[in-house]
Each structure stands twice: as C-alpha cells, then as structure tokens.
Amino acid sequence: MKYSSYNKLNFTVGPVMMDPDIKKIGSNNIPYFRTQEFSELMKENEKCMKLLLRCNENGRVIFLTGSGTSAMEAALMNSFTRNDKVLVVNGGGFGERFVKLCDIHNISYTEIRLRYGESLKTTHLEPYESKGYTGFIINMHETSTGVLYDMPLVSEFCKRNNCFLLVDAISSFLADEIKMEEWGINLLITASQKALALPPGIAIIVMNVDAVDRINKNKVQSLYFDLKEYLINGERGQTPFTPAVGTLIQMNKRLLDLRHKGIEKQICTVRKVAEDFRKKIKLLPFEIPSDSLSNAVTPLRPLGKLGANDIFNRLETEYGIWVCPNGGELKDSLFRVGHIGNISIEDNDKLIQALIDMKNKNIL
Ligand SMILES: *Cc1c(COP(=O)(O)O)cnc(C)c1O
C-alpha cells in the first residue's frame, strides 16, 4: 500500500512530529553496534539523561528497547518482590496499567482510585500513613485524562513512610519540572516517542543508587526484563540484546541539543505553546475537565453538538489534523490536544481555525 499520512499536523501525545535534523539522521543505514564508537554514544546518552534530570552521579540509566510499557513492567518486576506492599495511584488508563502489572506479577498493592480528571490530595493519602507500605507507584502525569499529580505531596508521603518511589514520567519528561533528587524519586521512566520527539521503541529507566541496589539484589523471572544484565552491559556502553540502534543515535543528537538549550528553556517552550492554545480554545464550546494540568496535553470535553470521537474523525479527514482521541468510556466525551514535539503557536492557529470553521458551518 501507499502510506499517505506523513504530512498530517499531529497534535497527539506520541509519536509526535520530529525536528528536521532528527529525521535526516533516520535516513541513514543502521550501523553495527558492538563497537567502541557506539559504546561512547551510549555513555554520552546516559550522561545527558542524568544531567537533564539532575540525577546524582552515582545513579544509572537503562535504555530498554520496547515501548514505554516495557519499562513500566521491567521497573515493577525488578524493583519489588512479594514482600513488598505498594500503593498505586489509579486515575486513568495508565494508572490502571500499573494495577494490572501488580496483579500479573503478584505484588501486593492498594489502589488509590481517583475519578477521571480528579487531582491527588492529602486526604487521598491520609488513610495509608504508617501502614507499612514499602513502595509507591504513580504516573506523574496521567496522560489519558490530562491530570498532573502533586509530586511534592507524594514525595513527602514517601519520605515519611520510607516508601520506594517509582515514577512513570513518560509524558512529563521535558514538559513539566521534575526534581528527581529533591523529591526522592528512586526510579523514573520515560520513553522516546513523547516530548523527546523521537521514533517509538526506546524506553528509558533512570535509577538512583538505592534503586540500583534493589535491582541487583532482586531475582527476576525473566530473560529480557532482567535489568541486572542491562546494568552490567551498560557499564561499557552496551546492551544485552540488539537495541533500536537508529533511535539511540537520533536520541544522542536530541539529548545534546537539549543539554545545550537547557531543560528549563525546553519546558518553557512547551508551556508557551500550551498556554497559547488554552487561551485561544476559550472562545470555543469546550471545557477543560482537569484542575491540575501538565504542559504536555490539554484534555477537552466538547460542549457542542459533536462528540469527541466525531471531532477527531472530522479533523483528520477534512483538515488533515490529528488530535488525540480517547478510548473506552471516554471515547465520546473527551479528546486531547498535545503540545509536545515539533509543534508551534502557528500550528495551534491552524487547529483553532479548523474548529472555528466547523463552528461556522454549524457542525460543532
Ligand atoms: C505514553 C505513556 C506510556 C507508554 O505507552 P506505550 O504505548 O507503551 O509507549 C505510559 N505511561 C504514560 C503516562 C504515558 O503517557
């Protein structure tokens, strides 16, 4: 078939539009990777990730070939044992995924269930103070509903209760401020296809010394997901199995650019695009059903005639624009507009214009 959707304006949350320089690197052959040169590139990638997250020098980074979920599963399997008792914040699709993973891997857990769009408050955590929990799992930004959780609140709880803190920051990295050391995050996950704006296929696990220690002591029933092997190989800039070599080379360029620009400036760029969109969307019949927003995404509930999924379809077929649809229960009531990747204020104007056009035609 002739694939035709390369030129759509993409407001989804991943994969997102890439910088021209990064696309150019992707047009090369994929080189052999058991080489000194590739090892050096991998070591540089690790160093850049630690610098961007201001992770302690003794921390480590694993580049796992798989989507973000592979890192969620690997992190959970390697960090916890049957002797742990963990809290999982579940406010949407990605929180639900951690719950399923705990079930599959027999990790004892208690779910902190939040309504769609609800933010995390002190009252949600109070019942679990001094109850012997050893771990806390949270998606910093629940991307399915667009709720950014109160990380200082979670951090304080974990410090008081001596909980190992595992944070899925897949959609927050480079979009929202993350204080890995200050918040006492033991293990943090991100992935290549969100704000890193690379092809999908690499998940990144960043660990502090305590997490590395835990992983090294833990026996894991898995070959591919035994992180000890990645830690050993990583010491010489290698991976146990063939990684997504091309994406890691593109990542090197992206990480060096980000290090040069500075993470604060990058977050500011994303925030400006998000704020611009939120200002302009006010003129149209939508509600933003979240009281704690990430810069990465704006969730929108349509208040007019057309349901969320129909809006997604019309924008795609009639305007060549992708917004991010929701699935399941939220399919007709919610869609999302992403602000990450190679997207600009001018792009926001094109989306707003398309929605205004739909409104003028009395469709919206
Ligand atoms: C995108 C995302 C994931 C990973 O999804 P994959 O499709 O497996 O890459 C996990 N958690 C959050 C919060 C995400 O936004």
TrEMBL record:
Aminotransferase class V domain: residues covered: 34-223
Binding site for substrate: R336
Extent of the signal sequence: none
UniProt entry tagged with the keyword Transferase: yes
Pfam families attached to this UniProt entry: Aminotran_5
UniProt GO molecular function: transaminase activity
Keyword Transferase: yes
Cofactor(s) needed for function: pyridoxal 5'-phosphate
Post-translational modification N6-(pyridoxal phosphate)lysine, affected residues: K194
InterPro entries per the UniProt record, alphabetical: Aminotrans_V_dom (IPR000192), PyrdxlP-dep_Trfase (IPR015424), PyrdxlP-dep_Trfase_major (IPR015421), PyrdxlP-dep_Trfase_small (IPR015422), SP_NH2Trfase/AEP_transaminase (IPR024169)
Keyword terms of this UniProt record: Aminotransferase, Pyridoxal phosphate, Transferase
Listed SUPFAM superfamilies: PLP-dependent transferases (SSF53383)
UniProt name for this protein: Aspartate aminotransferase
Species this protein is from: Anaerosporobacter mobilis DSM 15930
